[in-house]
Amino acid sequence: MILTHGVGGRQDLPLPLEYVIAGAVLALLVSFGLLVLTTRRAAEGEVVGPRNPRGWPLPRLGRVVDSPAWTALWRVVGLLIFAYFVLVAFAGADNALNPIFGMTYVWLWVGIVPFSLLFGPVWKAISPARTVVAGLTWLRGPGDPPLHLSARLGYWPAAFTLLAFAWLELVYPDNNYLGPVRLWLAVYLAVMILGGVLFGEEFLERCDPFEVYSSMVAKLSVWGRTQAGNLVLRTPLGNLDTLRPAPGMVAVVSVLFGTIVYDSYRESPPWLQLVQSPEISGSTAYLISNLALISFPLLMAGFYCVGTMLTGVGDVPRRALPAELAPSIVPIIVGYVVAHYLSYFWESGLATLRNASDPFGNGSDWFGTADMPVSYFFAFHATLLAVIKVAAVIIGHVLGVWSAHIRALQVLPKKHLVTGQVPLLLTMVGFTVGGLYLLFAA
């Protein structure tokens, strides 16, 4: 049996139907309200949205954050975490109490979202691959990297690697054994270090799946940079407006959203009836799961591309519109991550912290958390959890719709300000209503 996300966990109660209906109606009302508001202001000649957001300068904090000592501090923190990770990966017991599984599937994969929202691109700061590449580059001496990374490659490697990690977490039957996790992470680290040495930091910015994920989510934080590299405080939408399109960005957001949707759908009764049917063998169920994991991102990408390309009535070619509007999907992804993983992150994250104090299962207490009880707060406050889930999806929808409208108004002529945005609006509403339905059905 495949453990949930490789570490097991509690399954939340489905959302009450009235919450789903209220959320869907609210999403529709807010969407059309934003459409009317933005188009009216744009038709009157007012500039809508942060085309060139500047933000509030933070010179003192910027000097601290940009100092070599600050950078070195977080490099050391990253290396210490990595050293502990290697220790438990090779010397820890091969059972569910080994903290490597929670560190990988909970702290890293799910924790990227809240940590990046709060602190900016955290993985870029603590990535062991970046630290090793920086050291090897220093030993090599000054000069450009030996090879040049083609701009046409874009984020495509990150998209495929994100899908590969989702496969390990959600589909692979032995995802709760040390061997497969060690192998996947070892190959990932080796490829990132080799690519960083050959192609420079640009390789890590475009190909490291965790850095790409963290950096995209960080665009919804309040921490931003000017073109000169100075630290500023911005609104989340102002920061998101600085995320420029690139090849493969549509693939990245489709994989992130599609794999989360697949994770929700595989908890629904129709899916469980299919894969647990007596007529379906274990190997067939495994094949179906693999096909579904690939199909959901493809369906998300197809639905999104059709909706955005139907919006194309401006000067931008229709084929370029999906990439131009792709950053507006990031808030929807973040909202759905919060809705789907909140209780899992809370409970499994605390359990991982407890296990981390006793990595070898010999009764030690390295960090003073070995006897810490795991809080099941959300299990006893189901109504609060349901409200948070609906609120997270709706807030993500509102931010995504607002961002999409701003970007659409930059390319649409005035006579098509409303008709040009309707397909895009329906696409965003479809994502939100579909997410609410899965939270209700699971």
From TrEMBL:
The keyword Secreted does not apply. The chain crosses the membrane at residues 19-37, 72-93, 105-123, 153-171, 183-200, 285-313, 325-346, 376-402, 422-440. It comes from the Bacteria. The keyword Disulfide bond does not apply. Keywords: Membrane, Transmembrane, Transmembrane helix. This is Fenitrothion hydrolase.
